[in-house]
Design brief:
This protein is of the alpha/beta class and 398 residues long. It is built from 15 helices and eight strands. The N and C termini lie far apart (48 Å). 47% of the residues are buried.
């Protein structure tokens, strides 16, 4: 069943729409759990053994796995249903968002200024083609089509269906999990300025403000529509966050401004050139001793060929063209290209903070971890993967 959004900027859905959304959410759960398990079983029991008999070896790369799977009727059916279910997510909310827009704008005006946050739009920010020219995640019109609340509302309401209950009551479990990983893993770290880059509607940005209430928290995105919605959403939920329209590869902040620079499922939307540029900017705006931390799916080098293939489905079928190129990289090389020391790199896997007891979460944060095929996947055994680097306390600004 889809999550019921808890803020006033949610769209109004009648019972017919809710029934449709229930169906779509359940369908996605069936695809990503039952169908995915069946497809893996077919690979293990039929496709891989047939390949091994013909080649005297197992498939060794995800490209070999993908080529084999593309010929198989199970994969064709799985991909067709998953692709259509993704489109159904958006189709189930767009009509209701469009009807709700006038009321959403009134609510936005009413809540603005009530919780101490701020909003700055910049008409000089050029929205890059990877945002403006592509319906990323198959979302019609993309994330930056206009400055109304529409794109943000579509994304927020759609994510509630897409996530099938795995992302917390405010769709903020990633932010809660990573922020609390930092809090429990580095208890003496006391950040005062935190920046979330590529924040979309700010669901994970707010988690940092809640985890470190003494800090000033900023969120940026190139989309004016998204940061407008993020601001209204945060104000209504009573969380003070400062949102700005800004490109993460050209941060309009002074050197050594922040203690934390955070991203969530953002890097794989960028070209490798832009990732390196962003990391260089992150290093510049971090204070000595500051932390760069990113949540993503695990790199392909950490996974078996089949799991690489499975997690890179979105690159080929979900309009995320940079997805695989990013996951094929060693993150250590990327942070080093941005100016961080390779020795400062670390990575981790952490359970979901929202659904884990505080005792178990704290124990998991400090225990050895494993990265497997379920890491980052919406399933009952979900763990989030993250990586980061510390800026040396004596590192010169770049």
């Amino acid at each position: 069943m889809p999550l019921e959004l808890s803020h006033k900027l949610k769209a109004t859905h009648g019972r017919d729409a809710q029934a449709r959304q229930d169906f779509v959410s359940s369908l996605r759960g069936f695809i990503l759990n039952d169908m995915a398990a069946g497809m893996k079983e077919r690979f293990d029991e039929v496709i891989a053994p047939n390949f091994a008999r013909a080649n005297d070896r197992q498939p060794q790369t995800q490209d070999e796995v993908h080529d084999l799977m593309k010929r198989d009727s199970y994969f064709k059916f799985y991909s067709s249903v998953r692709y259509n279910a993704q489109e159904m997510v958006w189709r189930s909310v767009i009509p209701n968002v469009e009807k709700s827009l006038p009321d959403l704008e009134k609510t936005f005006s009413a809540v603005t200024g009530t919780s101490g946050g701020s909003l700055v739009l910049d008409p000089n920010v050029a929205v890059p083609g990877n945002v403006s020219a592509i319906d990323v995640h198959l979302m019609p019109g993309g994330y930056a089509g206009n400055e109304t609340l529409g794109p943000g509302a579509v994304y927020d309401n759609g994510l509630a269906i897409f996530s099938a209950g795995f992302m917390g009551k405010n769709l903020d479990d990633i932010g809660q999990s990573i922020a609390n990983y930092v809090k429990h893993r580095f208890p003496d770290f006391d950040p005062k300025m935190i920046l979330d880059c590529g924040c979309t509607v700010g669901h994970n940005t707010m988690a940092w403000a809640q985890t470190y209430p003494q800090a000033q928290v900023h969120g940026i995105d190139v989309s004016a529509a998204l940061v407008r919605f993020a601001h209204g959403r945060a104000e209504d939920l009573g969380v003070p966050v400062h949102y700005r329209q800004m490109n993460a590869t050209q941060l309009a902040y002074a050197d050594a401004s922040f203690d934390v620079v955070f991203t969530s499922m953002f890097l794989h939307e960028l070209s490798l050139k832009d990732i390196r540029a962003f990391f260089a900017e992150a290093l510049r705006v971090l204070r000595p001793g500051g932390l760069l931390i990113n949540m993503e799916l695990p790199p392909n080098q950490e996974l078996a060929p089949y799991d690489q293939f499975y997690l890179d489905w979105d690159c080929y079928y979900n309009k995320e063209p940079y997805y695989r190129a990013f996951r094929d990289q060693d993150p250590r090389d990327l942070i080093a290209a941005g100016g961080f020391s390779r020795d400062a790199y670390f990575q981790f896997a952490v359970p979901q903070y929202t659904y884990t007891s505080l005792e178990d979460f704290s124990a998991a944060v400090n225990a050895p971890y494993e990265i497997g095929g379920d890491t980052g996947r919406l399933s009952a055994s979900l763990n989030w993967f993250g990586f980061g680097a510390w800026k040396s306390k004596d590192q010169d600004e770049v």
